[in-house]
């Protein structure tokens, strides 16, 4: 929800210099454009976390004029003061009414997808289906795109043409085709606003306008010029759209369809029948996948070639089926709801079948090992420009082949080198723990993965941990470690187990009750990942060129009802350097560790429980005697961590303290002579 009018504070009105983005954790808000509302929320400036590979969220919001964000737990925390007015408000009300009709006349899952297909509202799409469509490479079908607009425009034109052709007078008075194309245009423009004025929809409408202008001016139609004209028109009114990912992918995809698709389909042009109908569709699908492959891998860190198969199934079912039938039901539901019910049911049945296919296709492997950079992006665009601008087809194809060979050569991953150093990168994933350990022999370990970020239930693995690991060129984890099954440690581990190659999984052996923990165990079993129990009952062992010393818990039976106190604690020793990982250990188990007589001394300490005042006692810090300590905490978190008393105890001992909430991700290089080199190369302002 975006607000852009007034901010009320201490009984006085202050006009906002920009716009305000308000997140609502649960529930839907039945508001429209122009509504005036009252609510109380703590406002914050968007900021970077300081992660490698992090998306520049503050800049993306700034392009939209948004400079502050707020949070509400549920819609009950806001009060509607005055309803909006004007045509935009009326269109919003109509969209809400149509959305309610779809939810009432179709099963929830299918209704959510129909709302996304028909009115651009993705709020009710089930997360598991959203993920399945994304993994299968067909998530474009869930957003209003140029394809939807084109299908609707053509169907409307054909319907009008069939009706008008019955009236002979009209055929004598005007050019029926050109006139009806113009008559159908207002309906498409109305649909543009009904569906939220998305970049792909606007692009399609502008291209339709360009085509109509060419027809009326009797000028030769050039598809590439239409694309350029639509892009320039959008950028003239909103230059910041150039940096919008939807804008970039939309124009790249249509550019590829226009330029590359005919060349892919040309060798099969003589094939007739069903295959002759399917092959152009396959060529279009392949063209869209190929031209967007590098940008998609750059932004989303995965490539799915199943999109070729998925598009062959989904485009007819959803595009020519569910979209056409569903769109036909929308005006009918306003006049005769009972008559629209069968249409919605038919559209829902098509969606259900599509969902079934996509869920199964999503289980096919996805390529996660390709991490292109901006040079690769430039090379991919240069290849498309060569196909467009080089007049000689053979010369253009030769240039493209050369550029593709360069891209392939750059995409071959370099072998991981063993530098003989122990490097720990404490990732700034908000109020959670995640640490990537690069071992002396080149192997890699992830200790916890963060999760439950803030109040937004952000998918930490997909949006934070994944991009960070890909930016660090991590496509395999030799060791995946979970300290304890709390969401702020577990959710990222679950993502890593499901999306990366994992050599071995370590845990304390004390099972958790959380549903996500059970899902993690299922993922590990389904991928045949070996599970190793690591606790103080076992002897120290070698891994990756370091000595691993398990220190806590002492057995596989829970010593406390608090899962924090059952955290896996272990030390990595590399020469005279050592790193102590402590999970969310509390005060009582710290005492148990001290009483056990085990050696706790460490060069570098991961401060227990995000710096809680109940951890890191004076006695514990005396036994560990760290040169440096890292606190993993979220900026401005609701728990007020790290506690000032904990920071004082650390600093009083002369320990250098580093904080992910203030400095971003922390990198520590531990050398064999006991030297620790620490910095924050991905800090908030880098």
TrEMBL record:
SMART domains: Lactamase_B. The keyword Metal-binding does not apply. Keywords: Cell membrane, Membrane, Transmembrane, Transmembrane helix. Residues 431-635 form the Metallo-beta-lactamase domain. It is found in: Cell membrane. It holds the Pfam family DUF4131. NCBIfam families: ComEC_N-term, ComEC_Rec2. This is DNA internalization-related competence protein ComEC/Rec2. It comes from Geomonas limicola.
């Amino acid at each position: 929800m975006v607000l852009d009018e007034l901010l009320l504070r201490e009984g006085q009105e202050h006009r906002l210099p920009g716009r305000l983005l308000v997140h609502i954790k649960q529930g839907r808000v039945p508001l429209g454009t122009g509504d005036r509302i009252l609510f109380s929320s703590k406002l914050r400036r968007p900021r970077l976390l300081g992660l490698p590979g992090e998306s520049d969220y503050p800049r993306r919001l700034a392009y939209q004029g948004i400079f502050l964000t707020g949070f509400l737990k549920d819609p009950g925390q806001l009060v509607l003061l005055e309803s909006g007015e004007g045509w935009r408000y009326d269109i919003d009300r109509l969209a809400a009414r149509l959305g309610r009709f779809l939810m009432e006349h179709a099963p929830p899952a299918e209704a959510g997808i129909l709302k996304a297909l028909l009115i651009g509202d993705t709020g009710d799409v089930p997360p598991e289906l959203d993920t399945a469509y994304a993994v299968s490479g067909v998530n474009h079908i869930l957003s209003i795109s140029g394809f939807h607009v084109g299908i609707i425009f053509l169907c409307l034109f054909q319907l009008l043409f069939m009706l008008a052709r019955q009236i002979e007078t009209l055929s004598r008075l005007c050019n029926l085709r050109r006139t009806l194309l113009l008559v159908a245009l207002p309906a498409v423009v109305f649909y543009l606003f009904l569906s939220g004025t998305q970049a792909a929809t606007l692009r399609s409408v502008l291209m339709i306008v360009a085509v109509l202008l060419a027809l009326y001016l009797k000028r030769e139609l050039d598809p590439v010029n239409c694309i350029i004209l639509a892009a320039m028109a959008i950028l003239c009114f909103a230059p910041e759209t150039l940096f919008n990912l939807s804008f970039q992918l939309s124009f790249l995809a249509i550019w590829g369809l226009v330029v590359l698709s005919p060349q892919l389909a040309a060798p099969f042009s003589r094939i007739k029948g069903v295959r002759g109908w399917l092959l152009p569709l396959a060529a279009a699908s392949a063209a869209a996948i190929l031209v967007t492959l590098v940008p998609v891998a750059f932004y989303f860190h995965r490539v799915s070639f199943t999109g070729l198969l998925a598009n062959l199934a989904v485009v007819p079912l959803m595009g020519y089926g569910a979209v056409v039938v569903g769109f036909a039901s929308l005006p009918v539901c306003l006049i005769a709801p009972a008559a629209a019910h069968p249409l919605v049911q038919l559209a829902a049945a098509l969606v259900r079948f599509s969902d079934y296919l996509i869920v199964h296709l999503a289980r096919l492997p996805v390529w996660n090992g390709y991490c292109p950079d901006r040079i690769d992006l430039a090379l991919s665009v240069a290849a498309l420009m060569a196909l467009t601008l080089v007049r000689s087809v053979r010369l253009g194809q030769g240039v493209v082949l050369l550029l593709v060979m360069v891209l392939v050569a750059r995409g071959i991953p370099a072998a991981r080198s063993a530098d003989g150093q122990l490097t720990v990168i404490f990732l700034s994933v908000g109020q959670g723990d995640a640490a990537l350990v690069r071992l002396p022999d080149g192997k890699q370990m992830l200790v916890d993965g963060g999760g439950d970020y803030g109040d937004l239930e952000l998918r930490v693995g997909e949006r934070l941990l994944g991009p960070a690991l890909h930016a660090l060129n991590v496509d395999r984890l030799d060791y995946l470690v979970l300290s304890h099954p709390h969401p702020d440690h577990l959710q990222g581990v679950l993502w890593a187990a499901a999306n990366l190659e994992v050599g071995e999984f370590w845990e304390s052996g004390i099972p958790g009750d959380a549903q996500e923990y059970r899902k993690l165990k299922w993922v590990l079993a389904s991928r045949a990942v070996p599970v190793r129990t690591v606790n103080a009952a076992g002897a120290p062992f070698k891994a990756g060129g370091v000595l691993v010393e398990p220190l806590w818990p002492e057995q596989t039976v829970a010593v406390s009802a608090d899962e924090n106190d059952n955290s896996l604690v272990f030390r990595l020793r590399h020469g005279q350097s050592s790193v102590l990982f402590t999970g969310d250990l509390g005060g009582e188990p710290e005492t148990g560790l001290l009483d056990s007589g085990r050696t706790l001394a460490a060069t570098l300490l991961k401060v227990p429980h995000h710096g809680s005042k109940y951890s890191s006692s004076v006695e514990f810090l005396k036994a560990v005697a760290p040169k440096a300590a890292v606190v993993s905490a979220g900026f401005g978190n609701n728990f007020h961590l790290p506690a000032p008393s904990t920071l004082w105890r650390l600093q009083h001992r002369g320990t250098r303290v580093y904080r992910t909430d203030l400095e971003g991700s922390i990198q520590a290089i531990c050398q064999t002579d006991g030297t620790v080199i620490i910095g924050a190369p991905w800090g908030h302002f880098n």
